[in-house]
Amino acid sequence: MPAHHHPRPVRRHLVGAVVLGSAALLAVSGCTNNTPAPAPAPAQSSGAGAGSGSSNDAAGQKVTIGFSAPAADHGWIASITDQAKATATANSDIDLKVAAGTNDVNQQISQVETFINDKVDAIVILPFDGAALTTVAKKAMDAGIPVVNVDREFSDPNAARVTVLGDNYGMGVSAGQYICDQLQGKSDAVVAEIAGIDSLPLTQDRSKGFKDALAKCGQDVDNRVAADFTVEGGEKATSNLLQAAPKIDAIWNHDDDQGVGVLAAIKNANRSEFFMVGGAGSANAMREIQSGNGVLKATVIYPSTQGADGVKLARLLVQKKGLSDIQEVEVPRKVQLYAPVVTKDNVDQYLGTAFES
C-alpha cells in the first residue's frame, strides 16, 4: 500500500562568474575569427551535474538519520524498513536510528519528537497518517532538520524538504495498457478488477488510471470488487467475483499481498480461462510469473525501495550534494518512482528488490 520544505542556504559558486566571463570572451573572438567558438563547458559542482567524477557513492561526512514507519503488518511495509536498514548498512557514513514500527499516530509523533530532541541530522518518515504527522514534521523542519516524506504525503508541503512517492495512478495505467495489449482488440472481452480499500485515495487513483487506460483501447471494467489489502480479504472478494462472473478474460488485482488470497480463491474455484495482473511487485508473485504455470502473467511495481531511496536522499541533503546524473545542484523537491510492468521476460531485473508477501 501506501506520499514540505524549509529554506536552507543556497550554495553560491564563483564558477558562475567564471562561465559568464568566458562566454563574453568567446563572443568577442567569434566576431574576429571565422572558426566557430566552442560552447563553454558546463559548471561542475560537488556531487551534482556531470555524473562522471561524481563522488556521491564515496563515504563522506557521517550522517545520523532518524527513520520511522508503520508496523510491518504487510509485506510491502516490512520491506520498506528492511531495505532502509540494508541501505544504511551498505553506506558507512550513515548512522540510521530506526524507531519501532507503529500504527499508533501518537506514538509515531513521539518518535519524531525524540529525533528532534536528539538533534539528528535528518528524518525519513513513512507516516501512518500523513495529515496527522504534518505538524511534528513541520516542527522538525523549523528546527533545521530536513525531513524526507515517504509515500503518504503530509497535508502541508512545507513539512518536508523532499517527498518520495510511488505512482498509484500510473500503476492503473500500466496494468490497463498491458491488458489492452494482451486482449488485442477483442471486442467482447470481460475485464475484472480486484481493488484494495475503496475509501483510500491510493485505491481511487489506481482504479482511475486503470479505467482511463482501458478506455483508450475500447475496454472497460465489467466486474469490480474491493478487498482490504489482506490475504483473507483478497480470498473473500475474489470468491464473490468469480461467483458473479461466470466468464472473465482478464483480472487486475491491485495488491500482491492480498493476491495470495486471490490466487487461493481462483484455485479453489478451478478457474483458469483468464490471465491476471498483480500489483506492488512481491517476490512470490514474481516467482509465480517466472514459473509460467498459473494465471498470473504480470505484476505492476509499486516500489518498496521508497524508504531506502529516502535514506539515500537524506544523506545527500545533509552532505550538501545533489543527484550526480542531473545538472541541478540540489536534491529535487519531489521524486516519483515509475510503475513498470513485470513479466516473464523481465522478471529477473526486478526480483532482487521485491518484497516477500
From TrEMBL:
One of its GO terms (molecular function) is carbohydrate binding. It comes from the Bacteria. Residues 42-55 have a biased composition (Low complexity). Its main location: other. GO terms for cellular component: cell envelope. Residues 1-27 form the signal peptide. Gene3D superfamilies: 3.40.50.2300. Residues 65-321 form the Periplasmic binding protein domain. Keywords: Signal. It is found in: Cell envelope. Residues 36-55 are annotated as: Disordered. The keyword Cell cycle does not apply. Belongs to the bacterial solute-binding protein 2 family. This is Ribose transport system substrate-binding protein. It comes from Microlunatus flavus. The lineage of its organism: Bacteria, Bacillati, Actinomycetota, Actinomycetes, Propionibacteriales.
